[in-house]
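Reopening closed ticket. The problem is back. First fold of the pair:
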Amino acid sequence: MRVLLINPNQVHLVSRRGKIYNRVWPPLALANCGALLEEQGHEVRIIDANALRLQPEDVAGLAEGYDKVFVSSSSLDRWQCPNLDLEPVLKTVSGIQTVTEDFYILGVHGTVRPREILEMTRARAVIRGEPELTVADICRGRNLSEIRGLAFQENGRIQLTDTQKALELDTLPRPALHLLPMDKYHYEVLGSHFTLFEGSRGCASNCTFCLLEMYGQGVRKKSLDHLISEVEHAVEHHGVRTAYFMDLEFTVFRSQVMELCDYLTKKNSGLRWTCQTRFDLIDPELLARMKLAGCRLIHFGVEAGSDELLRKVNKKISTRRIEEGMRMVHAARIESACFFILGFPDSDQSEIERTVKFAKKLNPTYALFHIAVPYPGTSLYDQIQVAGHELFP
């Protein structure tokens, strides 16, 4: 079977709605799907229209002759904070409809709003949750009603099948980076020859604003050997020199991170990398090991500048612990990117001022401020709905 996987072109560097910064990063979930499908014997192509700057009509022309077409509404790096602007996806789908009816939508939007996305796109089906196993089941030719994790229309009614079982990450082959334009990816604060790695999936925290619907319950991790195999292959066969470990809390499995750092230090490949974690999941010994292994930057979600607001959003960390962690990061001479959220319900102008003052006090290398977005599927969304505000109806 000939299968096409598409990552739409986001068109604007900054989305008009939601002000999302659209970086050119590899669509890792599609690379996972591509690897799994190739392992099953299918002929697979990935079109990363975002990296290649292809217009919807160009993508439609390239989509002719494929048996199955899958369009992603949100790449893995946007599972947690998806783009609010669906216009690029809908324009891509509109072009696909001119060449085939057998296309499918995957990503966050169809996961939290399956009926609406199905009606908007007229896709054969919408994939709910992590896509890899469901994509593989579709390409096996199974009846849609027998496949978990789907929404589809049958006899004029929308059907939702059971939730897909959680993917065991070690069952995935190495991501199909050979199907991607690897020379196009970069991260402006690290450099080019860039890719994403995923050592674990899920989050042990439960902040009110965080969208975790794509990840399922709990946290699953890859074995160290599996992750090292992916890193080695990317460096040695695809010339990767910079990377982002996309785990939501990279250091939650501290001993594995220490072992990974030992490997990277011994390998001495020159890989420069970044990750995301919490201030209460670091310590001086760990940071020293990460620095030696090539870690140049750590992303932290600070969110607020007062203990009261941190408690309200269920961050389960104090401003004092954040300050202690930042002192460790400064001492380790690792750069930091701290994220702050403005506009939570019941937070006034004085709360915003406290958050800005706290950001200055922390003095991260990069400070990024975002407006609170009540994504469907989050406690924050439920809170807004109870308050009587009809957002994302």
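Second fold of the pair, where the issue appears:
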Amino acid sequence: MDKVRKVIFVSRSNLFLGPVAETYYRNMSAESGTSMPECVSRGLVVLFPQPVSPKVNVMLTGKVKELCHHEETIQLAQDDIVDGTYIFTTSLSEKVSVIEDYNVKNVYTLGEFSRLNIDIPDPYGKEDSEYEKSSEVLYDTVREIFEKIKAINGGMKMIALGSDHGGFELKEKVKAHLDEQHIPYKDYGCFDTNSCDYPIYAKAVAKAVVGGEADLGILICGTGIGMSMAANKVSGIRAALCHDTFSAEATKLHNNANVLCMGARVIGPGLAMKIVDTFLNTEFSNEERHVRRIDMLE
């Protein structure tokens, strides 16, 4: 996944959610003592600059002392977007608008890039208590994003995750395991235990890997067999079904596998986490004989 060079928090009017998210991020960056990408907030519909909403003070109470950087709303412009820009929107509709109107590839809702996977509640026009609730969700979400950006820029790999209904519960355990290590990931579904079709999620993860949205993929179904068959239909994917750590190590060393497949009805969570760690921490040997054989696969 591309290194993050700039972060832009985008909300519709840039009145309060965007500036508050920017403030949280900038304070986290200052407190961390590490060099983090530049961060700004912008609006999608800012007809003319106006003061940010007084409600930002309600949202910031107890978190930080004052708003960072700017006190007036600012329209998102094409010049704001440079190589390595990551844009985070407060809703799906805003994400769609950014993708349609601006030439940028790394656009996410705040929820999908973090583990929360929800839109930020919009408190506009409501009681102060609703602004405070929104602030809590926004702060936790920005914290997750901050840690993932730090991990990406520190050299950690972005992981694409997918499962069917049979692998959903194990996938949730894998996500918690990755969270503990601050390893960034994106969940491509499914999102519950209702019966579903594994090829849909295998394809989504495989496309993310070959398209550069993720460095590696992890797919889980009942046996792992269907997922591995489906993923390997995508050109450029080398999916390996592993139910022991030796196989996970060997397939990275010799085959440079880029997708790990596991069966939730075959192995338990403890072994699965060891397999995940082995797969993520083993690098390709790059020996000539293995490179030659992989070229034959391609």
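Update: turned out to be a display glitch only; the data is intact. The chain has eleven helices and nine strands. The mean pLDDT is 90. Please close again.
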